[in-house]
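sorry for the late reply, my laptop died twice this morning and i had to redo everyting from scratch. anyway the thing you sent over, i finally got around to it. pasting the sequence first so we're on the same page, its 102 residues, then the predicted structure underneath. double check i copied it right bc i was rushing
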Amino acid sequence: MSDDYFQEMMSAVLEEMALNLLALGLEDWEEKSFEACRSGELIHLRVRNCEGEVVLKVAGSGVDDLAEQLVLACLHNVSTEQLGALHRRPLNRGLQVQKRKQ
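ok and here's the structure:
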């Protein structure tokens, strides 16, 4: 696998992972749009649903801070019931943890 293909694939995986986390946190699996603007030292990000309503707003001092705030905002919206339901969903067979016999 070439380095360029690997980088492109990993970017796509991380993007899909972020969009799935966002959908989980918003309980909305429809398409989203994003708006960003800079105000002084902060970058402001707005997430809009398919009807154009702002469903999430975060701000950060840089890309890393903005990403962290977005993850935290999503996780704050996830209920314990949702986490329980996710915990019961099986992973792909190859990803399941194998218990050792002792």
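The longest strand covers residues 33-39.
thats about all i looked at so far, will dig more tmrw
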